[in-house]
TrEMBL record:
Superkingdom, taxonomy of origin: Bacteria
Residues of the full protein shown: 314 to 618 of 701
Organism: Saccharopolyspora gloriosae
Family classification: In the central section; belongs to the 3-hydroxyacyl-CoA dehydrogenase family.
Entry protein name: 3-hydroxyacyl-CoA dehydrogenase/enoyl-CoA hydratase/carnithine racemase
Residues annotated as domain 3-hydroxyacyl-CoA dehydrogenase C-terminal: 202-283
Amino acid sequence: RAKRPAGAPDKKLAREVKKVGVVGAGLMAGQLALLFVRRLKVPVVITDIDQERIDKGVGYIHGEIDKLAAKGRLSPDATNRLKALVTGSLDKSAFGDADFVIEAVFEELSLKQKVFGELEGYVSPEAILATNTSSLSISEMASQLKNPERVVGFHFFNPVAVLPLLEIVRGDKTDDASLATAFSVSKQLKKSSVLVKDAPAFVVNRLLTRFMGEIIAAVDEGTPFDVADRALTPLGLPMSPLVLLQLVGPAVAQHVNETMHAAYPDRFGISENLQRFVKAGKTAVWQQDEQGGQVVDPEVVALWE
Ligand code: 3HC
């Protein structure tokens, strides 16, 4: 028999999830909605600040379902069923009967607090409010709510469909039933979950930020991008650090870095060059040249000079 993950409460306390809400319709939110509908096979409703974003989000999820069907992973029936389960709504009353709502909005504490505060006006007091925050405090996010005991950190990794790990975070008020529900949902999602402390950037991003920060610092100090990025090849990483930066999104990485700098200024520096890179709207260090090879984007190199 599979062992209960360390720190997980008795699974008998878990509540059934019959409808999921996703706040945000960006790329991360879309990946989450796709995973939930594929694994839980329950209605999933997504929302965002305008109808255009919502339509784009639903379009992305439907497109990904079509891609799975084209790979032969879904029958035509299952394809239609899954697509019909995903809807978008600008009106949050569509979340009224959701048992599990996860937010994946911009990485800003006050915004996430506002989103949860508004949701409390619609969902039942037991509905789980989960956050996919990369680095922010779960306890602070829940601090102004009427029912802070249902807030749980649910931190996925990119690409969500592929990477098995899920960091589950207990806030200072999270109760056993909410945590048990989180573990039960994680199991249905076929993720391998670990319970981590509510500390800045939890565990994985704490390590990753330091790791990325040192690569950037090496470049700041004059090591060329390609040399710094390829230096770790012998370790057999699935992708180089600066390609991973592109996958995560430099703006997200920068937010996590700021959280870590605020918490541990002696260990996490701020690279002004990276800030300029994010401000310039750059999303990648590497680009393809005319022969299809990978070269460092000269505009990025110029930003560092
Ligand atoms: N989105 C969705 N699916 C993707 C994908 C993407 N961006 N990239 C690859 N995949 C899928 C492919 O479709 C394929 O699926 P299939 O087997 O079902 O057809 C599968 O992944 C394997 O892809 P490939 O064979 O093309 O490529 P690789 O074997 O090179 O694997 C990878 C790609 C899984 C992305 C691998 O390079 C990897 O694990 N990289 C490290 C990723 C990582 O460390 N992520 C953590 C980032 S930290 C984070 O997200 C936290 C946040 O808070 C910042």
